[in-house]
Amino acid sequence: MSGDQTAALTEQVRQAAANKQPLAISGQGSKAFLGRQVSGEPLSLAAHTGIVNYEPTELVLTVRAGTPLAEIERILTEARQLLPFEPPRFDGAGTIGGAVAAGLAGPRRFAAGAVRDFMLGTRLLNGQGEVLRFGGEVMKNVAGYDVSRLLTGSFGTLGVLLDVSLKVLPAPEEERTLQLALAADDVAALLDRWTAAALPVTAAVHDGDSLRLRLSGSSRALDAATAMIGGQQVEAGSFWQDLRDHALPFFRLEAGERLWRIGLPPHTPPPNLPGRWLSEWGGRLHWLCSSAPIAEVRTATAALQGQAVLFRGDGDPFPPLDPVSRQLQRRLKAALDPNGIFNPGRMYPEL
């Protein structure tokens, strides 16, 4: 049975809190490979589904956390709208709660923004079995922490997302893909120039030999952008969806390889590390398939003021926290989950 499962979820959390029983929060399990494995009683949101409120004219969607991404995208497509951050669906599945909890955005992140940029509000179940509301269904400035955005990317370690309210956007009239033979070193400057010229580039990926661009907008805007950018127009097929969902051949790991997600400051070349590279977001995001030691990858990335997350493979997924960040994380955990029952150790051993 699907629908509003708030009462059942609340009761399970209250019992777990009383017994100090760890809970392993899950939706459809499409992102179970991310982060550390959690030992605990399963707390499933797979049946907590449904649209709570959708106002196409207001570009606002409120939905229960267990609702499949496929269902949300179907409803939005009917209204010619979309989730701007283009959440990945690694095995074709995934829920909106998992997308927010993981905080991962797809290729459109380059132009539209991150998951947290479209968070309006949340309904949260805290570690004492209390239902809390943060934010709302309108964009507004608030003093202090924006808790809804703070929960984005927390991997369920701070609480159970029950409902999320999101800003959605109109779908483009048309999309086309261009391919240009360009050296990786030339990409960032060109993308900056095209962005400054307000060209409708909504995705960009460089595979070491060439650059692929996705243009989104009206036919007239795409014609003008194509004339300015040049290159060859190619049939995209499922390329952008496969990039989003890591279904491209690039992401098939060979023996001994790990998959790294490396974020770098703008105009920063990737570290000199062995392996296969794929670059997105104008060089701000790099995927690396490499058998290099974990410490070597993290040290080389940190030297460039970047961050290396171990996406697939054995080892600690996230780089160590600095003392200030660790203290802040502990305080947040203590405030929202004082008994430490939610996904303990999913991100860091002590949280």
Describe this structure in words.
With 351 residues, the protein is an alpha+beta fold. It has three domains: 165 residues, 2-Layer Sandwich (Uridine Diphospho-n-acetylenolpyruvylglucosamine Reductase, domain 3); 64 residues, Alpha-Beta Plaits, CATH 3.30.70; 59 residues. The chain contains ten helices and 17 strands. The protein has an eight-stranded antiparallel beta sheet with strand order 13-10-12-11-15-16-14-17. It has a five-stranded antiparallel beta sheet with strand order 3-4-8-6-7. Strands 1-2 form a two-stranded parallel sheet. The longest helix is centred in the N-terminal third of the chain and has 14 residues. The two termini are 33 Å apart.
Mean pLDDT: 94
Main β-sheet: number of strands, strand sense, barrel status?
Answer: 8 strands, antiparallel
Low-confidence stretches: 138-144
| Overall body shape | globular
Question: Topology as H/E string?
Answer: HEEEEHEHHEEHEEEHEEHEHEEEHEH
Strand order of the largest sheet: 13-10-12-11-15-16-14-17
Tell me the strand percentage band: 25-35%
The CATH architecture of the largest domain: 2-Layer Sandwich
**Number of domain units:** 3
Level of helix content? Answer: 25-40%
Radius of gyration (CA) equals 21 Å
Main CATH class of the largest domain:
Alpha Beta
The beta-strand count equals 17
| Intertermini distance | 33 Å
What class do helices, strands and sheet pairing give?
Answer: alpha+beta
The CATH topology of the largest domain turns out to be Uridine Diphospho-n-acetylenolpyruvylglucosamine Reductase, domain 3
State the helix count. 10
